[in-house]
Amino acid sequence: MRVLSNLLSEIERMPTRSWRGEIRSATGMTLEVEGLRRVLAVGDKCWAETARGQRLLCETIGFRQGRTLLMAFDNLDGVAEGCAAVTDDTAFTLRPGPGWLGRVVNALGEPIDGRGPLRNGHHARPLRAAPPPAYARRRVGAKMDTGVRAIDVFTPICRGQRMGVFAGSGVGKSTLLSMVARHAGADAIVIGLVGERGREVQEFIQDDLGADGLARSVVVVATSDEPPLMRRQAAYLCLTVAEELRDRGLHVLCLIDSVTRFAMAQREIGLAAGEPPTAKSYPPSVFAELPKLMERAGPGREGQGDITGIFTVLVDGDDHDEPIADAVRGILDGHIVLDRRIAEQGRYPAVNVLRSVSRLLPGCHTAEQNALLRRARSLAATYDNMRELVRIGAYKQGTDAEVDGAVALNPALEEFLRQGKDDATPSPDSFRVLDRILAVPAGATP
Asked: What sequence ranges are listed for the domain AAA+ ATPase (predicted)?
């Protein structure tokens, strides 16, 4: 049976038709091709031949004056006017499966970890699938333990929820994701490093994720120097792999760092196709693609698993109201804000618990846990309002009992939120520690 199955897979890979067009111009990474009208649709893949006899994988991004617009997945060195553009049914296929776990691949699903070929699944999957229909999906499940105290207590994540992590550069997004990946209660993890710095990939995999984390993960990498199609497709591939594992009944944690770089890649593609720029030069297709990408995460149908999604947003200039951050915040089920001021004070993860929200609260906590959470947030807000007066000595102790309690407990709360990347705390233990902190009377030492 296995021989027959392999034979059927090879038959599926055989091309059933082939068409040839002629490259007439090249601008940037965009090719204009004649002779492929009514053959290629937007999103279809084909090959561009070079004058040196090589072939480059391309994708159709639009049409202009009777010509087909292609964008390459690599640089256009060697492409000359008059070279052929060839299409066939096997230009690009994806067959992800459990054999991908523990591997590192590029945006084309090719292994880049030097460990040999992938063990592919038997069936091809579309790169840009539609999410399950809203009426067919199950509801969001129980709380997922991440091991990160600031998340499990203040912004809990439930099975099938979609959460955003909003931060500027260098504030600790990747480290927070690695903490969640190492300790989260999920069956499998799919990690997308979209537009990541090349030197940080190995650091993330070896130091942050570690051997145990990698063993149950698929890591998809598209570095910042790669063409925009590769950076955009890396995000699509993450959801495709996650959907395959979800359909096998697994609870999948999908982490994409970052959605902003996905949007930037789509901006380059959209502008090259002739779209008009809108806010901060982002064309309309960016704001159309964001929900299509993130809606693929979430609860599955009955009998399937779930995809819990965590998407990072690189806020431009620490402006949390810039267009991409604003659009993503409206799509997701909550947001975790990393604050540069907190990071500069040396407290990591630099989660600003007052600005972070989980839309699954209060339903995912017990009544006792919600009471602790409300008390802790109230104390944190009181201290934040009086911070400057306390710092310059303008507040006199004894003026307000609530402020006195907030000032007294602030060091203990800050220590509670401080956590090393190798330090995992189960959610019940986090609430027990917080209960002990809040039980200290005003004026006493926690």
From this structure: 159-343
Q: Which CATH number fits domain 15-88: 3.40.47.10, 2.60.40.10, 3.40.50.300, 2.40.30.20?
A: 2.40.30.20
- pLDDT tens by residue, 138-157: 999 899 999 999 999 999 99
Fold classified for 367-439: Substrate Binding Domain Of Dnak; Chain:A; Domain 2 (1.20.1270)
431 pLDDT tier (thresholds 50, 70, 90): very high
- Secondary-structure class of domain 98-358 per CATH: alpha beta
Best CA proximity match to 350, nearest among 105, 173, 95, 129: 173
Contact yes or no for 183/148 (Cβ under 8 A): yes
Cite the DSSP H helix spans in 332-366.
Answer: 340-344
Taking Cα atoms as reference points, which of 299, 200, 283, 191 lies closest to residue 239? Answer: 191
Bridge partners, 104 (sequence order):
219
Output the pTM of the full model: 0.89
CB atoms within 10 A of CB 319: 11
